[in-house]
Write a structure and sequence with these properties.
By secondary structure, the protein is of the alpha+beta class. The chain has eight helices and 22 strands. The chain folds into three domains: about 25-250, Immunoglobulin-like; about 260-350, Zincin-like, CATH 3.30.2010.30; about 355-480, Neutral Protease, domain 2 (Orthogonal Bundle). Helix 6 (about 420-450) packs across helix 7. The longest helix is centred in the C-terminal third of the chain and has 31 residues, at about 420-450.
């Protein structure tokens, strides 16, 4: 998740705590398109090829204007071209969509780019973009998939982040001073570069191709799928939530490596800007090994990191996005960077492989990733369980008083520290009761048995009971809902 100042400890120190409406765009339609909703012509497509992208979308209670539970995107094919001189992004987005209910129109989240054409099953339709929603009439039947193609161009724009964090930045596709691109988009913002059902419960498969000028590189999430001239290709065969996609364009240096079990790893950094963190990036095999020993095999076919011009970091799937905006790296900052990087790697298990159904359960991502980070710091700095306990209780009390309990996050306070520290403190309590063997068996089973699924508080509580044979619902609910630190 986007980096928050969680914890930065030295070997000799104790633990310390350490999104706007837009005017309507002109409708775009071919001369053959009718202004009335009409049935699409019969087009034969084998949608079984994208069955792994099937989800059961849920309306999000925190950000109900983003995404919809009326459709399930199975697959996104994005063909993008970036011109840094004109700052123009040209895109063709081909979506395979499964309607979850009968409907007379289709609506997706989308920034108001200039629309060039929109088709549904090869039939042109009249489409408009209003208030960051791409909408057009078409007859949809529940569980009968359709293919839509959106062609567009324009200059990318960001959207505000609903948070008061110290590292808060605008969300979505960001243009750098030198004409590069980067993006972070939690809880939303994917719609700033492609039409999307921009909510966590709708995961989909991806094929991404990005064409850039000669000498430039384009980096995206998923597994590298080859390079054709200056077109870089990536494919995600595991489903991805929109907030976990990434895109970066710039003049990068590429480093390849192998992790445990010959896991392919790729690090992308900007020479002269990120040189001081390259050594930390190359420690990735150690981070993966540490996490595999506790939570089972790394869940995807490849991994990597791309450095960008941000003050934050993000667990984007298979290609972690790390901000390098920290000035000169001293020893303490370097340690903090590595702790954050371990945290983002932990999210590949907790959040990426197993994703929250709605943003109300962000604690389910951040609690586990934060606790994994603390376990790493405990090992590196030889910290005792008592020190960890002291830190958790003091910081937990401060955060509940300021931000409330982690199980009821506020929409205006997205991803602030209570959804990190407080659920991590709950997991420590569970760890103490279960012991090492049973606790890590629980964590391993949670991610390995539910790979590529969306989960929530109720399913977590039920899973803990089934896995351990004991009912810990009172402990979990108390730590998630209490206004003060539980006794």
């Amino acid at each position: 998740m986007r980096r928050v100042p969680l914890l930065s400890v030295l070997a000799t120190a104790a633990l310390v705590a350490g999104c706007t409406s837009t005017p309507p765009a002109k409708p775009i339609a071919s001369a053959e398109a009718s202004a009335e909703a009409s049935a699409s012509p019969a087009v034969t497509v084998d949608y079984a090829a994208w069955s792994a992208g099937r989800s059961e979308p849920s309306a999000d209670p925190l950000y109900p204007k983003r995404g919809t539970d009326k459709l399930d995107v199975l697959h996104y094919a994005l063909d993008l071209t970036w011109d840094p001189k004109t700052k123009n992004l040209t895109g063709t987005a081909t979506l395979q969509v499964r309607p979850t209910a009968d409907a007379k129109q289709l609506s997706l989240d989308f920034m108001p780019y200039e629309l060039d054409s929109v088709t549904v099953d090869e039939a042109p339709v009249t489409a408009t973009v209003t208030d960051e929603k791409l909408t057009f009439p078409t007859t949809l039947t529940a569980d009968k998939p359709v293919t839509m193609v959106v062609k567009y161009h324009g200059e990318p724009k960001t959207t505000p982040m609903p948070s008061h964090r110290s590292d808060t930045e605008p969300l979505g596709l960001t243009v750098t001073k030198d004409g590069g691109l980067w993006t972070m988009q939690e809880p939303f913002g994917a719609f700033t570069w492609y039409p999307a059902n921009d909510q966590p419960s709708d995961e989909a498969l991806y094929d991404i191709a990005v064409t850039v000028p000669e000498g430039w590189s384009a980096i995206a999430g998923g597994t590298p799928a080859g390079q054709d001239g200056s077109t870089f290709k990536y494919r995600s065969t595991d489903p991805v939530a929109t907030y976990l996609t990434t895109l970066a364009v710039g003049k990068y240096t590429k480093v390849t490596a192998k992790g445990p079990h010959d896991l392919p790893l790729t690090y992308w950094y900007r020479p002269g800007t990120d040189d001081d963190v390259v050594a930390s990036l190359k420690k990735s095999p150690d981070y993966v090994k540490f996490l595999e020993e506790r939570f089972g095999p790394y869940p995807f076919p490849s991994g990597g990191i791309v450095m960008v011009d941000s003050a934050s970091g993000m667990e984007t799937q298979q290609m972690i996005t790390m901000g390098g905006k920290h000035g000169k790296w001293d020893k303490d900052a370097q340690s903090g960077f590595e702790e954050d990087l371990l945290h983002e790697y932990a999210h590949q298990w907790f959040g990426d492989s197993v994703t929250p159904t709605t943003w109300k359960d962000l604690w389910l991502n951040e609690g586990w990733a934060t606790y994994a980070q603390f376990l790493w710091e405990q090992k590196v700095y030889n910290l005792t369980d008592a020190q960890l306990e002291t830190f958790f209780r003091a910081r937990d009390a401060e955060l509940r008083k300021k931000l409330g309990p982690p199980g009821s996050p506020l929409a205006a306070n997205f991803a602030e520290s209570n959804v990190y520290i407080c659920p991590a403190a709950m997991l420590q309590q569970l760890h103490e009761k279960l012991g090492d063997k049973a606790f890590f068996a629980l964590g391993t089973a949670w991610v390995q048995k539910q790979k590529n699924t969306q989960q929530d508080r109720a399913t977590f509580i039920a899973f803990v009971k089934k896995q351990t044979g004991k009912d810990y619902s009172k402990l979990i609910n108390t730590w998630l809902d209490s206004p003060t630190t539980p006794a």
